[in-house]
Design brief:
heterodimer, A: alpha+beta, 2 domains, B: TIM Barrel, eight-stranded parallel beta barrel, three-stranded antiparallel sheet, 9 helices
Chain lengths: 218, 333
Amino acid sequence: MHDARFPSLLARAVIGAAPKPALDLGAAALLAAMRRNHPRLFSVLGECRRTRILVELTDPPRRFLLEYGSGAPTLHVVEDEGDVAADATLKGGLEAMMALLEARVDGDALFFNRELVVGGDTAAIVTLRNILDRETIDVLDEASSLFGPLRRMARAAILNWERRVARLSAALAPQAANSAGAETHEAEAAELRAEIEGLKTRLAKLEARQRRREGAAA
Amino acid sequence: MRNINYLELVCPAGTPAALRTAIDAGADTVYCGFRDCTNARNYPGLNFDDQELAEGIAYAHARGRWVLVAVNTFPRAGDLGPWRRAVDAAAAAGADAVILADIGLLDYASRRHPKLRLHLSVQAAASNPLSIDFYREQFGVSRVVLPRVLAVSEVAALIARMKIEAEVFAFGSLGTMVEGRCYLSSYITGRSPSSDGACAPAEFVSYREEGGKMVSRLGEVMTNCYARNENAAYPTPCKSRLMVRGDASYLFEEPVGLNAASILAELKGAGVTALKIEGRQRSRAYVGEVVTHFRAALDALARGEAAPTAVSDLHAIAEGGKVTLSAFKKGWR
């Protein structure tokens, strides 16, 4: 749809299943990586007035609060389903959001086609869109960079898992429409969840190993 | 000497990244503006500072392309400073031309920078030979960007009687009002595209879900109300859906984008020198997609082949998700 390299199936599964503390940690790590790789972007965001943007994903349905303009930008999961104090709201699918972040798609076209819904302070949304459009961001690269010298291994692992999730999804799709295959469906879904948990554990170990190496080098 | 294939392709850049994207996608020329009220796309987070412009020009010149700087708003009374500074900065950065609309600023640029090429902005709304001759004779203007109100036959008749290059819009948003004279946005918000460089400034725009529909407002004025799966549009006053005698309709212009891809040969035959893609406020993804398609079409026409049909199929990225030939083919006549 948006010419993506981004592992959207895997990301959708992780974002949909992971608890808030894990996602908050992941978001903080991703922002830290982006800060290292895009110092100009974070400098410009730091010069903005304090802004809170509620990002509402529709698939999976999760909400994040992005804050910038006073100190380092932060990104947190919002679990409360009630109103959130935010200057603006951005609502859309995960794939569209990632394509927008990576400047692979035109935000106005997404808005025209109603794939993206904006609310609140429109100027804040327009400003953020234009600031991001100046940068070349690749979320997969940013995530892989968390692993330092092991980034290529991590990237390969992520893409490998994305392919496996895609194969499983394709295999499950016809069975989902067939109630007779419900048990098989559930078993394979459980296998998928287990494999995702395994991936998370493996990545955490890689990250810990890298931290130890950095500590030893220091 | 540049190698122009068929028609010069003049493309928008709201950011340095968009400039590089346009050049890499095949633009012959890129136009951009400073981050202030002197250019007609003065939106938050967009545009260039002096250093970014100099770097962009270096990138383009290294690849044999041109960069034009739009200083195409009208100076405010008693506040000429930003406009003079913009012209001087564009000349200092090595711009290949400045795009101007105001008669006083044209005079300033022609006297202060006699070697700087001048293009007459569409904001000047020059659409007859007398007017265009005046700009050429008085200020040495080399090119006029024609208003989006002329049929192809009228473009041809005009070009036959003028002695400078003609540039026409080929893709992007349409302005239905007299170019450079629209104050509808100013009437509602106090800011206009003509002096502040922003039509429907974002800080006055809001979108809300109301009763299952999306309602857009500019200031306190409702500009549209969209059903759940209906394509949305910019909240500009000229494309508002207005209630008249109980019926909601687009009185001035529907939210639709121009796409002249299907009449490129006719425009070439009419004597047009350059095609302009509108959209400095759009993303670099838009720039890349539109420029790539038009580049392929122009190259095909230069080889004597038909333009690829894909270039006529850019409606998904056009305003409102629809395209038109607008005044080029005055179907309402």
